[in-house]
C-alpha cells in the first residue's frame, strides 16, 4: 500500500517557518531603516485619521495600507479579512456546517438544484425544484447567493427553518433542518469514457481531494480502466500536499515531484515519490488550460518532467509561490510568499513579475497566452536557451512561467459552439426553458439519470425556441458589429452539437454537475483531440513498465 505523505510535512515545520520569520521580523525592527519606516507609517496614519476634513474610520484605512504594501511584492501575497478567511478555511477543509443543498438564484428566488445524498436537507424532505422563499421567517426573495449561503450555514447541530414553494403544492411548506457537516467534493466527475479509458475531473485541491481521487481511481479500475484522462482545466490549485500525494500514486519510487526554494532553510523542501502507487505504469493524459494554477501546475509539471504523462490543452496560469498565512490580532491574515515552486527539471512555475504593476502583469500574461495558443512555433523559437529544460528521458520542455503542454489545442475562434458558450446563450435559454417546463421534466426524469443521458433528445419545438432566442440575442445576422454573427444555416449544420449543449445544461438542472460534464465531454474539442494521442501517452508509460518487462528500466 502506498505510504501516505499527508503528514510528512508536519505542522512543526509550518510552525517553524512562522517562528523563524517572526524572529527575523523582530531582528529587522531593530534596524535603523525599518524603525524609520515604521515611524513614517505611524505618522502618516495618525495625520490622516486626526486631520482629514471628514471623520475617517481607521480599520479600512489600515486594511488598504496593508494591501498596498503587499502589491509591491508579488501578485499573490494578499491580505485576507477575518470573514474571508473563515470561508477560505471551509473551502479547503472540504466540509462546513450547513443544510446540504446545491441551489441557484433564478428570478430573484433560490431554486434547489440538488440535495446532497445523505445530507440534512434530503432527510428533512427538501426536493430539487423547491424555491426558498424564507429563512427563519425572514424573506429570502431577492437575496444574493452569498447572502443565502450565509443564512443557511451555521454551527453543526443547530437548526434553521426554511420555507419553500413546491411545484404542484398550493401552500408554502416549512422545514426545520438540523445543520450537519457537509462535504465539499472536489472530484466533479469520474466515469468511463469507453471500455478501457477512465476520466477524472478535479475542481480544486482540498484536504479531501486525495481520498476522493483514490476512491474514484479504484472504482474505475474495477470497471476495467487501463488508461486515465486527468482533467485539471479551470482548477485554481489549493493545498500542495494533496497534489503531491496524487502525483505519488502515478509515479514509482524515487522521482522528484516538486521542490521549493526560499530565503530560509526551512523553505528548502524537496518532495519525492514513494513506492506502492495505485496507477504507476498505465498511460495518463492530463488536460490543462489557462485557469489551471498552483497545485494543478505542480501535478502537470511533475508528470511532464518525469515523462510520466502527456500534457494536452493550453499553457497554464503560472502561479508557483509557496505562501504561509500569518494571522493578525483581529483574525485577519497576511498570506505571504515565503518560497517558490520548481518542477523536477528546474522550471520556475511562477510567471515573472516586477512589483507594483498588476495590470502590466496580467496584460503580459494575456499576450503570452495569445502567442502560445495561436503561434506556438514562433513562441517556442523565441524562447532563450536559459528557459529550455530537459525531462528525465531527454525531451525539451520550456520555462518562463506556467506549464506549456506537449500538445497545444487552440480554440476554434470561428466555432458557433464557442460563441454560444462564451455568451452563455445556451445556459440562459435552458434556465428559462426549464422554469417553464420544470413540472413535466421532473415528472418524467426524476431518479432516471442514466435513462435521460441515453435517450433524451432536443425536439423540434425546443430547438426552434432556442433559435428564436439566439436570434433575439443577435447571434444571427450579417451586419458588421463587434459581436461575431453566424447564420441560421450554420446553426442547423451544428444542430447535433448544439443540442447536446442544451441537453447538458438540462442535465445540470435535473441531476447536478457530473451528469452535465458527461454530456459536455461528448462535444469537448480538447478532450476529443487529446484522445487521438494515446500512442504518445503509451510511449511515455512504457518507461515505467516493471523492469522485467521493460528494457528502458534495466539497471535503474
TrEMBL record:
Establish whether keyword Hydrolase is in the entry: yes
The domain of life for this entry's organism is Bacteria
Belongs to which family? Belongs to the peptidase S41A family.
For this entry, the protein name equals C-terminal processing peptidase-3. Serine peptidase. MEROPS family S41A
One GO cellular component this record assigns the protein to is:
outer membrane-bounded periplasmic space
Instruction: Extract the PANTHER family matched here.
Output: CARBOXY-TERMINAL PROCESSING PROTEASE CTPA (PTHR32060:SF30), TAIL-SPECIFIC PROTEASE (PTHR32060)
User: What taxonomic classification does the UniProt entry list for its organism?
Assistant: Bacteria, Pseudomonadati, Rhodothermota, Rhodothermia, Rhodothermales
Q: Which UniProt keywords apply?
A: Hydrolase, Protease, Serine protease
Please report the stretch or stretches of sequence annotated as the PDZ domain.
Answer: 85-153
Q: What would you give as a GO molecular function for this chain, any one? A: endopeptidase activity
State the InterPro entries in the record.
ClpP/crotonase-like_dom_sf (IPR029045), CtpA/B_N (IPR055210), PDZ (IPR001478), PDZ_6 (IPR041489), PDZ_sf (IPR036034), Peptidase_S41A (IPR004447), Tail-specific_protease (IPR005151)
Q: Name one Pfam family in it.
A: CtpB_N-like
Alphabetically, which GO biological process terms does the record hold? proteolysis; signal transduction
Amino acid at each position: 500500500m502506498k505510504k501516505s505523505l499527508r503528514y510528512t510535512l508536519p505542522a512543526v515545520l509550518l510552525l517553524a517557518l512562522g517562528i523563524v520569520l517572526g524572529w527575523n521580523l523582530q531582528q529587522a525592527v531593530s534596524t535603523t531603516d525599518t524603525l524609520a519606516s515604521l515611524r513614517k507609517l505611524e505618522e502618516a496614519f495618525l495625520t490622516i485619521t486626526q486631520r482629514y476634513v471628514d471623520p475617517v474610520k481607521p480599520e479600512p484605512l489600515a486594511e488598504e495600507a496593508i494591501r498596498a504594501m503587499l502589491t509591491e511584492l508579488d501578485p499573490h501575497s494578499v491580505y485576507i479579512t477575518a470573514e474571508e478567511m473563515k470561508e477560505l478555511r471551509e473551502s479547503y477543509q472540504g466540509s462546513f456546517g450547513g443544510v446540504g443543498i446545491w441551489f441557484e438564484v433564478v428570478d430573484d428566488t433560490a431554486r434547489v438544484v440538488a440535495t446532497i445524498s445523505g445530507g440534512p436537507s434530503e432527510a428533512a424532505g427538501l426536493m430539487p425544484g423547491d424555491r426558498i422563499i424564507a429563512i427563519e421567517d425572514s424573506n429570502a426573495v431577492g437575496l444574493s447567493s452569498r447572502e443565502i449561503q450565509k443564512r443557511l450555514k451555521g454551527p453543526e447541530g443547530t437548526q434553521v427553518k426554511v420555507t419553500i414553494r413546491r411545484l404542484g403544492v398550493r401552500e408554502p411548506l416549512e422545514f426545520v433542518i438540523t445543520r450537519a457537516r457537509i462535504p465539499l467534493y472536489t472530484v466533479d466527475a469520474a466515469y468511463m469514457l469507453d471500455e478501457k479509458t477512465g476520466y477524472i475531473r478535479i475542481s480544486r485541491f482540498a484536504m479531501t481531494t486525495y481520498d476522493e481521487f483514490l476512491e474514484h481511481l479504484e472504482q474505475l479500475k474495477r470497471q476495467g480502466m487501463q488508461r486515465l484522462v486527468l482533467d485539471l482545466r479551470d482548477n485554481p490549485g489549493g493545498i500542495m500536499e494533496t497534489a503531491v500525494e496524487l502525483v505519488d500514486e502515478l509515479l514509482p519510487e524515487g522521482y522528484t515531484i516538486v521542490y521549493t526554494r526560499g530565503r530560509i532553510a526551512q523553505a528548502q523542501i524537496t518532495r519525492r515519490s514513494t513506492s506502492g502507487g495505485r496507477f504507476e505504469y498505465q498511460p495518463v493524459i492530463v488536460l490543462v488550460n489557462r485557469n489551471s494554477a498552483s497545485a494543478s501546475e505542480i501535478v502537470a509539471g511533475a508528470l511532464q518532467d518525469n515523462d510520466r504523462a502527456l500534457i494536452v490543452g493550453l499553457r497554464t496560469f503560472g502561479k508557483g509561490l509557496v505562501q504561509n498565512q500569518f494571522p493578525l490580532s483581529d483574525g485577519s491574515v497576511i498570506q505571504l510568499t515565503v518560497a517558490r515552486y520548481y518542477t523536477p527539471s528546474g522550471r520556475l512555475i511562477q510567471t515573472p513579475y516586477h512589483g507594483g504593476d498588476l495590470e502590466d502583469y496580467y496584460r503580459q500574461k494575456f499576450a503570452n497566452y495569445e502567442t502560445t495558443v495561436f503561434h506556438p512555433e514562433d513562441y517556442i523559437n523565441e524562447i532563450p536557451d536559459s528557459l529550455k529544460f530537459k525531462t528525465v528521458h531527454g525531451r525539451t520542455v520550456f520555462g518562463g512561467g506556467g506549464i506549456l503542454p506537449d500538445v497545444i489545442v487552440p480554440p476554434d475562434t470561428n466555432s458557433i459552439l464557442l460563441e454560444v458558450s462564451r455568451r452563455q446563450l445556451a445556459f440562459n435559454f435552458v434556465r428559462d426553458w426549464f422554469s417553464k417546463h420544470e413540472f413535466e421534466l421532473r415528472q418524467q426524469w426524476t431518479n432516471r439519470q442514466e435513462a435521460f443521458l441515453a435517450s433524451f433528445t432536443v425536439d423540434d419545438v425546443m430547438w426552434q425556441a432556442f433559435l428564436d432566442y439566439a436570434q433575439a440575442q443577435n447571434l444571427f445576422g450579417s451586419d458588421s458589429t463587434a459581436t461575431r454573427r453566424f447564420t441560421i444555416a450554420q446553426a442547423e449544420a451544428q444542430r447535433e452539437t448544439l443540442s447536446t449543449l442544451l441537453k447538458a445544461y438540462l442535465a445540470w438542472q435535473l441531476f447536478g454537475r457530473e451528469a452535465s460534464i458527461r454530456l459536455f465531454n461528448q462535444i469537448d474539442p480538447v478532450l476529443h483531440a487529446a484522445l487521438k494521442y494515446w500512442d504518445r501517452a503509451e510511449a511515455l508509460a512504457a518507461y515505467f513498465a516493471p523492469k522485467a518487462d521493460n528494457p528502458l528500466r534495466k539497471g535503474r
